[in-house]
Amino acid sequence: MPTGVALRAVRAQLFEAADRVLLRDGPSGLTSRAVTTEAGCAKGVLHRHFDDFDAFLAEFVLDRVHRMDAQAEALREAVGTGSVTGNLTDALIALFGSVAVSIVALVTFRDELRARLRDTWPAGIPVLTDAVGMIETYLAAERERNRLAPEAAVEGLAPMLIGSAHLLFADRTGPAPDRDAVHAMVATVLNGLSPAESG
Fold this sequence. Notes:
By secondary structure, the protein is mostly helical. It is built from 11 helices and no strands. It has helices spanning 2-25, 32-39, 43-49, 53-66, 68-78, 84-96, 100-109, 111-117, 128-144, 154-169, 179-189. Mean pLDDT is 86; it is low at 1-5. It holds the Pfam family TetR_N.
């Protein structure tokens, strides 16, 4: 048991260091030395707990994807409350204001990491595919409550919202879009599909 606790603590320390390096320096700056230096530990610590750096990165990505469960739960709890546009705006800001955009860049940047992730993630890019599912589930629930038009094709709307939000947040060197910009994008995608609302 103590060994398991120690391993979890080391993993958490290294993953949090990877978050900081990735947000600050981007995918090209995320090296094993950068992570261990940021974590304040010897380089050998990472290699003692993971087969190689791509194994570390694969577990890091999957850990960050699983952290989206709390965001998905918050969106499920928002069903039937507030406005659909407002709820989606808040969910997209929470998603893309986190390390998510940098994770997408990391996965597309490293061929070896994509290959490693194929073992557990057979299609799409982690974070984006989960986010599409989260938004689609939310839209379907709102459609069932007649807060979205019956003809709303949630299977197409969800990837459109995620793709559009990703474009808004993609430039990590510039300022993040403000809530009004994200809200306007969501309102445009849902134009005519939800009752007149303010969010």
